C-alpha cells in the first residue's frame, strides 16, 4: 500500500493505493480523522478488492459538510449548508485529478464518519457517480434529513449504515433521535438497494477508524 500526500485547491489530500486498485473510496477528513487514517488502512488489509482511498481535507466540519443551514447543536457555531460546494470540489476537481494518478478503471464509493457519513448519503442523492456509499454513524438526526431523503432517493446500488448502540442515549434531545432516524433510513432503502445496518458497541466516539474501515470493506464485498 503506497501513501502520498498532495494539495489540491488548498486542500490536503491523502491517497493510499494498492497496485491496480479496482475500487476508489473517497472520504472527507478533518484533522482528527487524518491522524487515524493509517490505522484505518491497517484495518482494511483484508478488503475484498484491491483499493485506493483518497481522504480530502475538511477544515470547517459544520460548514463544509452540512447540506443546508441549521442552528448550532453545541456552542454557537451553526451549520452553514455548504455541502454543495464540497461536492463540486469532489466531482469537478478531485476525481479528474485522481483519474490521472490511478491507471486502472475503478468503481467509486463515497463514505465517512459522523457528519461526513451524512454528507456521503446526501452526495449520493445529488449524483449517480457513486456505486456505493459507506455511512458510519452518520448524522441522520440532522434537521430535515429524513423528509429530504424521502423526496430525494439515494442513487447508489449499495449502502452501508452503522450506529453505536449507545448513541441514541445522547443527552442532546435532537441527537438522541439518531436511533429512530437510522432505522427509518434503513427501512427506506430496503426495497431498492443492497443495504445493511450494523450496530456497534459503544457511543459515537468509540473505534471510529475501525467502524469506517468496516463500512468501506462491506461496500467492496458487494462490488466483487
Q: Which fold name is given in CATH as the topology?
A: Rossmann fold
> What gyration radius follows from the Cα positions, in whole Å?
16 Å
What would you say the CATH architecture is?
Answer: 3-Layer(aba) Sandwich
Order of helices and strands: EEEHHEHEEHEHEHEHEH
Tell me the count of domains.
1
User: Regarding CATH, which class?
Assistant: Alpha Beta
Question: Which stretches of 5+ consecutive residues score pLDDT under 50?
Answer: none
Provide the CATH superfamily. Answer: Alpha/Beta hydrolase fold, catalytic domain
Mean pLDDT: 95
Strand content: 25-35%
The strands making up the biggest β-sheet line up spatially as: 1-2-4-3-7-8-9-10
H/I helix tally? 8
Alpha-beta classification: alpha/beta
**Main sheet summary:** 8 strands, mixed
Terminal residue distance: 20 Å
Helix content: 25-40%
The number of strands is 10
State the shape.
globular
General description of the model:
It is globular and about 45 Å long. The chain has a single domain (2-223), classed as Alpha/Beta hydrolase fold, catalytic domain (Rossmann fold), CATH 3.40.50.1820. With 224 residues, it is of the alpha/beta class. The protein contains eight helices and ten strands. The strands form two sheets. The chain has an eight-stranded mixed beta sheet, sandwiched between helices. A two-stranded antiparallel ribbon has the order 5-6. The longest helix has 19 residues, at 83-101. It has helices at residues 31-35, 37-43, 61-64, 83-101, 115-126, 145-151, 178-189, 208-223, and strands at residues 2-8, 11-17, 23-29, 51-57, 69-70, 79-80, 107-113, 132-136, 158-164, 194-200. The chain starts with a strand and ends with a helix.
Amino acid at each position: 500500500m503506497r501513501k502520498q500526500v498532495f494539495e489540491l485547491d488548498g486542500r490536503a489530500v491523502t491517497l493510499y493505493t494498492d497496485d491496480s486498485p479496482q475500487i476508489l473510496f473517497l472520504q472527507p477528513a478533518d484533522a482528527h480523522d487524518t491522524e487515524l487514517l493509517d490505522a484505518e488502512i491497517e484495518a482494511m488489509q483484508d478488503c475484498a478488492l484491491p483499493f485506493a482511498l483518497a481522504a480530502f481535507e475538511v477544515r470547517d466540519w459544520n460548514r463544509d459538510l452540512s447540506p443546508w443551514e441549521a442552528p448550532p447543536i453545541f456552542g454557537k457555531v451553526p451549520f452553514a449548508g455548504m455541502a454543495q460546494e464540497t461536492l463540486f470540489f469532489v466531482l469537478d476537481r478531485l476525481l479528474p485529478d485522481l483519474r490521472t494518478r490511478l491507471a486502472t478503471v475503478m468503481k467509486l464509493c463515497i463514505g465517512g464518519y459522523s457528519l461526513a457519513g451524512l454528507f456521503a448519503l446526501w452526495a449520493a442523492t445529488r449524483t449517480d457517480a457513486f456505486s456505493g456509499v459507506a455511512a458510519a454513524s452518520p448524522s441522520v438526526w440532522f434537521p430535515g434529513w429524513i423528509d429530504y431523503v424521502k423526496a430525494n432517493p439515494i442513487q447508489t446500488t449499495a449502502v452501508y449504515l452503522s450506529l453505536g448502540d449507545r448513541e441514541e442515549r445522547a443527552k442532546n434531545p435532537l441527537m438522541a433521535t439518531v436511533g429512530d432516524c437510522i432505522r427509518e433510513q434503513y427501512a427506506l432503502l430496503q426495497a431498492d438497494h443492497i443495504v445493511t445496518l450494523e450496530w456497534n458497541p459503544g457511543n459515537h466516539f468509540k473505534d471510529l477508524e475501525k467502524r469506517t474501515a468496516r463500512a468501506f470493506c462491506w461496500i467492496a464485498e458487494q462490488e466483487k
